[in-house]
Design goal:
By secondary structure, the chain is an alpha+beta fold. Among the domains are: 70 residues, DNA Methylphosphotriester Repair Domain; 56 residues, Homeodomain-like (Arc Repressor Mutant, subunit A, Orthogonal Bundle). It is built from 9 helices and 4 strands. A hairpin with a 4-residue loop joins strand 1 and strand 2. Helix 6 packs across helix 9. The N and C termini lie far apart (54 Å). GO terms for molecular function: DNA-binding transcription factor activity; methyltransferase activity; sequence-specific DNA binding; zinc ion binding.
């Protein structure tokens, strides 16, 4: 069901008069909000509107950390799951801490603080881990150039990519490809 023009206008204008009347869920982030939520404007085609406040949660959406659509604080463990989901699905895209804050509906600095306290690493460190894991798979499954693989996993600077790969796996991406390709050929 598509979003009506009235619902869309309420969301676009952060109209508080519609709070408690309907809630909107964003398919791409799996988060739901009040119409007055000040978070980044989602694409209209990614929105589903609910008139029962419990339905978004029943359908697998998590509460927005920023607007707290049910009027209660969002559990940090749930928020971390949301952040991890965003990192895992969007690791190949340009993803700054500010972008992550918008997508996870929280302030970047608070997000970083909560994430690090909960996981022991920063969201940026987790993002690099995911990118390097994807690169490792790509090195063994393709013959793409190192520069292309680096870009494909979201790291535009190939020197930085090689440095981080070496720090994580103890060898350069090219050496990794050669040494592990030989093992799989045997």
């Amino acid at each position: 069901m598509s979003v009506t023009d009235i619902e869309w206008a309420a969301i676009k204008n952060n109209d508080k008069t519609y709070d408690g009347i309907f809630w909107y869920a964003v398919k791409s982030t799996k988060i739901f909000c009040r119409p007055s939520c000040p978070s980044k404007m989602p694409n209209r085609h990614n929105i589903t509107v609910y008139y029962d406040k419990n339905e978004p949660g029943q359908r697998g959406y998590r509460q927005c950390k920023r607007c707290q659509p049910l009027g209660e604080p969002v559990d940090n463990e749930e928020w971390i799951k949301t952040i991890n989901n965003i990192l895992e699905t969007k690791y190949a895209q340009k993803l700054s801490l500010e972008d992550l804050g918008h997508l996870a509906h929280g302030s970047p600095s608070y997000l970083r603080h909560v994430y690090k306290n909960f996981t022991g690493i920063t969201p940026q460190q987790r993002l690099i881990e995911l990118r390097l894991q994807a690169a490792k798979k790509e090195l063994l499954q393709s013959n793409l150039a190192i520069k292309v693989i680096a870009g494909k996993v979201g790291i535009e600077n190939v020197s930085y990519f090689i440095k981080k790969f070496r720090e994580k796996y103890g060898e350069s991406p090219l050496h990794y490809r050669k040494s592990h390709a030989k093992k799989s050929d045997s």
